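Notes from the 1:1 (GR / supervisor)

We went over the backlog. Supervisor wanted to see one worked example end to end before approving the batch request, so GR pasted a single chain during the call. The sequence is below; no edits were made to it. Supervisor asked that the structure be written out right there so they could see what the output format looks like.
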Amino acid sequence: MSLLEYGALFSEALSGTRTVVPEGTLLSRLAGEVVEMAGAYLSDGTTFLRTGDPVNALAAFAYGLGWLDAGGSLGLFEPSPAHPPAGVEACIPDSQSAHLHEKTHRYRRMLNDALLVVEAGPDEASPLHAGAEAFRSAAESWYTEGVERLEAGDLPGALARFSYGYAWLDAGIRAGLFRITGERGLFTV
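Structure output shown during the call:
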């Protein structure tokens, strides 16, 4: 799917998102924050795409969809299909190759660093501890896939995977699944 189609998929997914937790609860507040983050990144990605910056558009769309999918995994929204970046075929012009190279490698470093400075927050006996492990596993899996894409020379595929995986960590921190043990500036808290 093209970057334009990816943005349209994101827009449709976000507009179809329905919160299922009771209004006024802590989980309702969390659902609102997830939707707010996803909406901000949809807006950013759309602006980037419209102004000729497909690199940042790709990263924004993948990151925002990661937030939305992580929120769905938490049970905050009606069940909906996940939107991993596996089918995205972003066409980045050669004129933006240096920008793509820099951003992809920077996101790889940032996600790697972020994975090193989070740990499960809930007690091991809590079901939320298992949730933290599932979110970490998702982020690690997307990091691994991103590295594989990077090594294969598919920088857009790598960037999308790093961005999507990073969103799972950020959403997990916002949801209270993780504790930050190092550099807080790596996260949107």
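Supervisor's comment: Residues 26-50 form the longest helix (25 residues).
Batch request approved.
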